[in-house]
Design goal:
homodimer, alpha+beta, 60s Ribosomal Protein L30, Chain: A, Phosphoribosyl-aminoimidazole Synthetase, Chain A, domain 2
Chain lengths: 337, 337
């Protein structure tokens, strides 16, 4: 009889482990690809350019949420980290930690979601690992994805290239993912439903490639949100960031819910957005390119890089006053990704 | 005041996350290396050859055991998977899932152990990730490592290259790791203490490189032990494996303890051993090379590849009879790696 749940023997390395891998992972990830040939590794075919590696583990709760699930998130998150490095995402490895008793149907759904997202993003899931721990030693499923991409010639995105006068763009509305997870967890309902923005941003990477070195830096504002990412970039570039609150796109539903909950959307996680810092001469064109993409429709220019105050983020509020926008301290929304 | 334990805010993506990364990971992994420059990725400098990726999550319990700890294991395990692919291990990413309340002192020890093992194996830990889950949602710490290596020209290790007449070698004694963990967990004590063989096997990879294509396949017999690996290789090569029980090196202490516990060392996990399948003309030389390495002193020729029975492993017992050695079914020792 086939089990309907994960049992400890699925992690033994023996026959049941093999069957789990064959029935769930190989079938979804590699059908007709001839990959997964080596037991414990996969050979990568890398085009010319600088190879980049990025890793992330995903522990989000709940596993399924409006707009996505842990599988879609696990693929999107690592794809987006590679895009932020300027790389074309190519390959992913994936490693599962499964809790004894976890539903095999849910695992199947998650794996299919990963396969679908990977196909959409043009990345191949080439190797994996499965571990099982006793009931109570993990919370259902944790997924690690590690991505390999290649930076095409002429691309160089890093904080060291940010200059005073650069424009600060965001590719869309802020806070959707964080608020969706929070609302889902607390059982909150809003008149206009909120949906996570969870999505792979390979198209942004591709669309901005022609701007070459005019794009100075990119980063995805996940945990800690826009405020934290801008503070990191300010610290790493030893420059200041000056942004205009009124120009930051936030959905009405998200703004309203945040006000109700006493949360700030600028600290809320995003899983399908990019912060882009570019030379002022190209900022308008970059925006136009972003607006043509489904994932960039609400892109906006929210401010500029300044030489002073070093390492800080200033925000011009709706009232016209200026205040310091600090990095996230303490804890915000746990297990958001 | 600095916390002595992991708190939820260490996973927020905010200031406390940054401090954790800087104080524990960057300091141990990248001192003076100039790595960890990109926030969410690292650029890799890859020599010519075929790039290989391998991933593993480690959930071993207990975290510290005679002969190693989860950190040493997490580096060794992925290094050994790359070596088994014929690759020279070069880079590792590492991702931590930490349970709220986990001791920062223990984390520090684990991270130092990883750094030490990586240095020994000549691999660089170049990028990472940290997530925190609530008390009770994980068991202390889980670590993923994903490795990148490059297969030098002339090396091609895979089951498809195994031929009838090939010799089957093991690089040392079988079952040390599995028995050590089991004994530690059950509080068993033996007259001769047993110690895990946990070690990176980069030296084996390097030493066997000059044999080029005469080495047909390599695999590390971890979960499921030698019996399971030989069954996998038999199935994948569509050949048979014929081994001689009396030639398989097993430490007296391990054999005795296994007998007492009703366990078979051939199903026990190893974390510092390799199964090597090579052309018969070079097997004696390969053994000589292995014997010169500290990790290969007890290497032995344990049998040969046969054309029949396909997909099966036969073992000649100490009594001179023959029996089928099946792959591991069901569960053996949970959370062994």
């Amino acid at each position: 009889m086939k089990p309907s749940q994960i049992i400890m023997a699925h992690g033994s390395g023996g026959l049941l482990s093999q069957r789990l891998i064959e029935e769930y992972f190989v079938r979804a990830f590699a059908e007709g690809e001839g990959l997964w040939e080596l037991n414990d590794g996969a050979v990568l075919d890398l085009p010319p350019g600088k190879a980049v590696i990025s890793t992330d583990s995903f522990v989000i709760s709940p596993l399924f949420f409006p707009g996505g699930d842990i599988g879609k998130l696990a693929v999107s998150g690592t794809v987006n980290d590679l895009v932020a490095c300027g790389a074309r995402p190519l390959y992913l490895s994936t490693a599962f930690i499964l809790e004894e008793g976890f539903s095999l149907d849910s695992l199947g759904e998650i794996v299919k979601s990963m396969a679908r997202t990977a196909q959409q993003a043009g990345v191949k899931l080439v190797t994996g690992d499965t571990k099982v721990v006793e009931r109570g030693s993990a919370d259902q499923v944790f997924i690690n994805t590690t991505g390999i991409g290649v930076i095409p010639p002429g691309i160089d995105y890093r904080p060291g290239r940010i200059k005073p006068g650069d424009r600060i763009l965001v590719s869309g509305t802020m806070g959707d993912h964080g608020l969706t997870i929070l609302a889902q967890r607390e059982g909150l309902r809003f008149r206009t439903p909120v949906v996570s923005d969870c999505a792979p941003l390979h198209e942004i990477g591709k669309a901005l490639q022609p701007f070459g070195e005019q794009i100075h830096c990119m980063r995805d504002p996940t945990r800690g949100g826009l405020a934290t990412v801008l503070n990191e970039l300010a610290a790493q570039s030893r420059l200041g960031m000056y942004i205009d609150e009124q120009k930051i796109p936030v959905l009405d539903a998200v703004r309203g819910a945040c006000e109700m909950l006493g949360m700030d959307p600028l600290y809320m996680a995003n899983e399908g957005k990019m912060v882009i810092i570019c030379a002022p001469q190209v900022s308008q064109q970059v925006l136009e390119v972003l607006h043509k993409l489904p994932v960039g429709q609400n892109a906006a220019d929210i401010g500029k890089v300044v030489s002073q105050p070093q390492g800080m983020v200033l925000i011009k509020t709706a009232l016209g006053t200026e205040r310091i926008l600090a990095a996230l301290e303490g804890e915000h929304v746990p297990r958001i990704c």
